[in-house]
Amino acid sequence: MTRKLQVVAVSGGLQRPSRTLALVEGIVTSMAQRLPIDVHLIELGEIAHLYGGITHPAALPDEVKAEIAAVESADLLVVASPVYRASFTGLFKHFFDFIHYEALIDVPVLLAATGGSDRHALVIEHQLRPLFSFFQALTLPIGVYGAETDLQSYRVSSPALQERIDLAVERALPLLSHRNVAISLGVQA
Ligand SMILES: Cc1cc2nc3c(=O)[nH]c(=O)nc-3n(C[C@H](O)[C@H](O)[C@H](O)COP(=O)(O)O)c2cc1C
Hints:
Helix content is 37%, strand content 19%. By secondary structure, it is α/β, with parallel strands linked by helices. It has a single domain (5-184), classed as Flavodoxin domain (Rossmann fold), CATH 3.40.50. Strands 1, 2, 3, 4, 5 and 6 form a six-stranded parallel beta sheet that branches. Helix 1 (19-34) links the parallel strand 1 (5-11) and strand 2. It starts with a strand and ends in a 17-residue tail after the last helix. The model has no long low-confidence stretch (mean pLDDT 94). Flavin mononucleotide is lined by residues 13-15, 18-20, 82-86, 114-117, 119-120, 148. Flavin mononucleotide binds at residues 13-15, 18-20, 82-86, 114-117, 119-120, 148.
């Protein structure tokens, strides 16, 4: 039996328009050109007011609980945060603090971030990758970082960023075997 890959994309952008959201959309568009996927998009800026002041998971509103459940059941995660003060945002971390520590074991995760300049591009390797390593997730080999100049008019505007997105997706394809969905992907070795 075949089914589409259930992709959950988390954009950590806290404002609209959002370059981080534009980057996430660019990534899932590239995926959709190569894979049969269903995409569930979570914009943290839209729900941050519902969980920002909450510390105990039981106190979360149902809307946020549903988004956490979506993350915990995804076949593939795309996660992206703007860089705030040289790291992912506090609200990005706070959202993932609610994710069960064993829910993402072996789940492929494509890491992405946006920043004001290229200076903080290693936020992917130094901040995002360790967080998802804690979850024992399968962080995909290529992360995608976009600076403001790559995302003019809140879209993927630079050919170099588009190439990086496409390469990250291509390199991910052979690794998408989590939860036995690879059989439906037509993945070329
Ligand atoms: C509070 C705040 C802190 C920021 N800190 C950094 C930073 O340390 N390094 C950086 O490269 N960009 C920094 N930026 C710029 C944002 O990362 C950048 O504009 C990003 O693309 C914004 O994403 P968004 O449009 O999804 O909000 C900061 C922006 C804000 C609002």
